[in-house]
Design a protein that fits this description.
Blueprint (H helix, E strand, L loop, with lengths): L34 H25 L2 E2 L7 E2 L3 H7 L2 H32 L6 H8 L1 H4 L2 H11 L6 H4 L1 H4 L8 H29 L3 H9 L4 H12 L1 H17 L2 H6 L11 H11 L3 H26 L13
Antiparallel strand pairs: 1-2
């Protein structure tokens, strides 16, 4: 009987020169950062936003001249504002300037933003020049245009055939026109930047499909570009509205609420009551009303536009 011996085979191992397999990545998920990471920002926002807002709300029910102790007067400040003709006029002027800002800046911003998103010759140079007003503060812009539109030494004095007596700040209509023009000149580049980024994000395949279907440049603009800019348009209009309701330094430097009270908007009237008449209670009431109005308008625009329900980048494609 022959006994067959079987030699033990060596265990299989990696061949010499074969690439080594990398270990499988860990499937454990990284948790969200804790509240500690947001604590510095939360503390900063509380100290410099929430606390002052609460103090203004409390002060709106007080009578205080900035020196003597505050005295609680209930709703007297609010009652006087409701019957104040200057306050009622300031609300109308604020809404008018806000509407003019939206009407003038929105189409200009869209056209310039879509143009700046292209690849035309000298586009970059022209865009940089056009964005210069965005780098200047509202105070610097107001001082610049106050000098340029000075009735004695500015442009109107040299072009009486166009500006008449040259005093653009002497009548309500021309003064409001100057305020609307200066705001448009300064803030349109900011909103142009928003639309430029949004136009660059439009998928090129949409335009390619439109060209195959025979759609021209104008049809592509109205049926592809504009619907794709819907979310950016809502964001821009909210910023314009809030900015229009709270603008201050432009009126302070250019017109100082004049002639008379013809350009006294609500924010300037707040400054006039608080820092000129030393009626900080009434000034606080106006400030609180502006905060509430800006918040309500923003929420209404978001709600009516459906912005809070939008999910995809191709939301507005029709």
């Amino acid at each position: 009987m022959t006994t067959q011996t079987t030699s033990a085979r060596p265990a299989a191992g990696p061949r010499e020169g074969a690439p080594r397999r990398m270990p499988a990545p860990s499937t454990s998920k990284v948790g969200r950062p804790g509240f500690v990471w947001a604590l510095p920002a939360a503390v900063f926002f509380t100290l410099f936003a929430i606390v002052p807002l609460i103090m203004v709300a409390v002060l709106s029910f007080m009578s205080w001249d900035g020196i003597s102790p505050p005295e609680f007067v209930g709703t007297d400040n609010w009652s006087r504002l409701a019957d104040d003709p200057v306050m009622l006029q300031s609300v109308w002027l604020t809404l008018l300037l806000t509407a003019l800002g939206v009407v003038l800046q929105t189409p200009l911003s869209i056209l310039l933003g879509v143009w700046a998103a292209g690849y035309q010759r000298n586009r970059a140079v022209l865009s940089v020049v056009y964005f210069v007003p965005l780098l200047l503060s509202a105070t610097a812009v107001s001082v610049l245009w106050r000098a340029l539109l000075d009735p004695n030494f500015g442009i109107p004095a040299s072009a009486t055939w166009l500006f008449g007596d040259g005093n653009l700040f002497g009548e309500q209509a021309t003064a409001i026109g100057v305020l609307a023009f200066v705001s448009t000149w300064q803030f349109t580049p900011f909103h142009t930047l928003i639309y430029q980024g949004a136009a660059r994000a439009v998928p090129p395949v949409l335009y390619q499909a439109a060209e195959i279907d025979g759609a021209g440049r104008y049809r592509q603009f109205f049926h592809i570009t504009l619907p794709q800019l819907r979310t950016s348009m809502i964001t821009s209009m909210i910023l314009m509205t809030v900015g229009g309701l709270t603008t201050f330094e432009t009126v302070l430097i250019l017109t100082q609420g004049g002639p008379g009270t013809d350009t006294t908007i609500s924010a300037y009237y707040m400054y006039d009551k608080a820092f000129k008449s030393f009626d900080y209670g009434t000034g606080s009431a106006i400030a609180l009303a502006l905060v509430v109005a800006a918040t309500v308008v923003s929420l209404v625009v978001v709600r009516l536009s459906g912005y809070d329900k939008m999910r995809g980048s191709t939301e507005g494609v029709s």
